[in-house]
Amino acid sequence: MNFDGTRGGALRAFVDFAIEEAEPDSPPGDLRGISCIVCAYNEADRIRNILDVIVGHPTLGEVIVVNDGSTDDTEALIRSYPTIRVLSHTPNRGKTYALSRGIAAARYDHLMLLDADLSGITPADIDAQITPERMATRHASVEAAMSRLGDYLREAKLDALIVVGDDQDELYHPENMPGILVYYGKTIRNMPLTPDRVRAGLAAT
Question: What is the pTM assigned to this prediction?
């Protein structure tokens, strides 16, 4: 992967904390292929749908599945596919951490990120997403979005910006997800703030 330039440096900083845990592997001779990364947390009942499509797909150079502290049979299921590169850790640390491990371990220049619970996807759908034209269009769209985001942040003149990923309910549940969250402190615990915990905290005040 190319980590040159300002955005490349930002990506390098983002994944640095996970690189020491990525399983090293000798890179293939052709780095122009595609690394497909899937992050999984307790997906034993669903992940086979997408694995059966991407494992062995001729356009994908490798498939990496990051087992994010699953407590069901996810680990055993993904290891039943001999060609999958499996990265595992415990406890569950959230999709952002799992994704960073997969990115750090990728051996190819291009990445395809897929959700573990996808269904109804066919090999033809994969082909349609990785044509040169489709990839160029997505690249241009992402570059434009990054530029707009940079403009917004510069105009806001913030002292600090904290971005929290919560797609797996690491901090909040949908019932009590705040519209605006102001956080202070040095660390964030990866422990869902359930409605019961909120009620208990309110009762104690």
Answer: 0.61
